[in-house]
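Supplementary Methods, section 5.1.

A reviewer requested that the exact input to the structure prediction be made available. We therefore reproduce it here, unchanged from the version used in the analyses.
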Amino acid sequence: MKSHQNRNVFLPDERIAEMTATGAWGDKTICDFFDHWSTSCPDNTAVVSVNSETGQRHAMSFGDLGDLSERIAADLTNRGVGLGDVVAAQLPNTYEMLARRASSPAMWCG
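The structure derived from this sequence is encoded token-by-token as follows.
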């Protein structure tokens, strides 16, 4: 089964229709919301990362996270990575891993 974006999905059409009809699912993805937040409230805090060894906190705004994500996406694109390619990353649970996942919503979430 394929989604409206021609991606593989594992839910029957009936379940998708039911969840959409009840309002539980909308027509926006988390990437759509991220794009909105990074442009409408770029100075708001998106994530706070705490180093478990030092206790040092690192806060990152939506705008900064969006900028970092775009730089990562540009680098991956320059290296020949495209839509549908699989990219593996192993990073600690910090803002850098979140930025890698959010990289270029048009490429990674579309």
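Helices lie at 13-21, 30-40, 62-78, 95-102, 105-108. These observations are discussed further in the main text.
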